[in-house]
Design goal:
This protein has helices at 5-9, 21-49, 53-64, 74-84, 91-103, 108-135, 147-238, 243-273, 290-307, 316-325, 343-363, 406-416; strands at 330-335, 369-375, 379-386, 420-425, 431-438. By secondary structure, it is of the alpha+beta class. It is built from twelve helices and five strands.
Length: 440
């Protein structure tokens, strides 16, 4: 695994300003070599200057040891190298100092200025030494006025240009690597953020689909089961007094039970087949990420309700007939030109009427109910209103349970299609449910 920029910064393990111990060891070794070189060259410098040898050696040792701080103060190292150049010492210090300076983060104008100063200083010192050598006859056979300038320029460029160019290359490469580390860190953070958001979206989608499936199963089962309970209560009341009516109620209970089981089997069948018949397996190293699994599960669940054939407005008559058979007086009125709507619009409209009638069975058994359906230019409106229930109701003994989710589910269905849902008691003591759904 590649170390990122943050890991690179926190990996400091060397003393003082060094990031690593091996960097401190390298600089210490270079400073020792430079000190030995300058100390040896200080012997000749002391002889030429008429100083004691010990003074020249100490001076060389002190000047060469400056290389120890090359990473922290590269300018100081280059300036010291330029200062001791006339004494013909500090060759290693000059080369390493120029390289460190060029590879540092200092502004280019400072690097160019110091490199130029070093070049000029080396050029002058080399020119003077070459001229003195020509005077002493040390370069016999290399006569001509061209030799001294040539050797001076060549030597100064050879000492200055290579370390500067190498330092510039290494510095540029180092900055490039730092930039790549920062980009890798940024990309890693973005990917982590995207993964977290993907998990949140997948979890949200799973919750939405669970709610949607639960609402659909509630609508499928609750209405028919409520009618079955009402008929069972009526059957219990008339079993001895009117056997023929009891037989008819028993037949209705059986029919509604079979219809409820059929619809329930259809939905459960789609739920079982939505994963392609595969059984869950244990997670392995090659398993997809959690976010991908969650998104796939949510996508599969979103097809469950769509694959089940939903009801349509043409089935309203049958729905009202079932309620009438259970003893409810229902008055249906349709206004406007009847036409076909999108499947989700018709299914939502049907479920609103179905759930409203179920609530009447549960909470106002025996009350007269009015169902109004209005086909408009760009929308469809429906209203289910019941009168107050009679004092004595045969269904009162049915004790139908209520989960309190019917009105919430209707409102969610209508709101999902951009419609408006309103429900509440009437002034006469009944209850009214109204919904308006856009036609497209």
């Amino acid at each position: 695994m590649t170390a990122t920029g943050e890991e690179h910064v926190t990996a400091r393990g060397g003393p003082w300003w060094w990031e690593r111990r091996r960097s401190a060891a390298l600089d210490g070794g270079l400073a020792l070599l430079s000190a030995v070189e300058c100390g040896a060259e200080g012997v000749k410098f002391a002889g030429d200057a008429g100083l004691p040898v010990a003074v020249g050696v100490v001076f060389g040792l002190l000047a060469g040891s400056v290389l120890l701080v090359r990473r922290q103060w590269p300018i100081a190292v280059v300036l010291v190298a330029i200062a001791v150049a006339p004494a013909q010492m500090g060759f290693l210090m000059s080369v390493v100092g120029l390289y460190t300076l060029a590879a540092s983060e200092l502004p280019r104008r400072i690097i160019a200025s110091l490199a130029g100063m070093s070049l000029v200083g080396t050029l002058i010192v080399t020119f003077v030494r070459a001229q003195q050598g020509m005077t002493r006859g040390e370069y016999e056979g290399f006569g001509g006025d061209w030799f001294v300038p040539f050797i001076s320029v060549t030597a100064s460029l050879g000492i200055t240009a290579p370390p500067v160019l190498l330092g510039l290359y290494v510095g540029a490469r180092r900055r490039l690597m730092e930039s790549l580390r920062e980009r890798a860190d940024s990309l890693e953070r973005e990917l982590q953020l995207l993964a977290e958001r993907a998990e949140e979206r997948a979890e949200w989608a799973r919750n939405e689909e669970r709610t949607r499936i639960a609402r659909e199963m509630h609508d499928v089962v609750a209405h028919r089961v409520s009618l079955m309970v009402v008929h069972a209560a009526a059957l219990q009341a008339v079993a001895r007094k009117d056997p023929e009516k009891a037989v008819r109620n028993a037949a209705l209970v059986g029919d509604m039970g079979r219809q409820a089981l059929t619809e329930l089997r259809e939905m459960l069948g789609v739920l079982r087949s939505s994963d392609g018949g595969r059984r869950p397996e244990r997670a392995s190293a090659g398993a997809p990420p959690l976010a991908a699994v969650g998104a796939a599960a949510a996508a599969a669940a979103s097809r469950v309700v769509d694959e089940v054939e939903g009801p349509c407005l043409d089935e309203l008559d049958e729905l009202i007939g079932q309620s009438a058979a259970a003893g409810m007086v229902v008055d249906l009125s349709v206004v406007g030109e009847v036409r076909a709507y999108a499947a989700e619009v018709e299914q939502t409209a049907f479920r609103v009427v179905q759930e409203a009638l179920t609530n009447v069975h549960k909470h106002a058994a025996g009350a007269k109910t009015y169902v109004r359906l209005a086909h408009r230019a760009s929308e469809i409106a429906m209203q289910v209103e019941n009168e107050p229930p009679p004092e004595a109701s045969s269904a009162s003994s049915a004790r139908l349970p209520s989960g309190g989710n019917g009105l919430v589910g209707m409102k969610e269905r209508v709101a999902a299609l951009g419609g408006v849902f309103v429900s509440g008691p009437t002034d006469a003591g009944g209850f009214r449910v109204s919904a308006v759904i856009p036609a497209s």
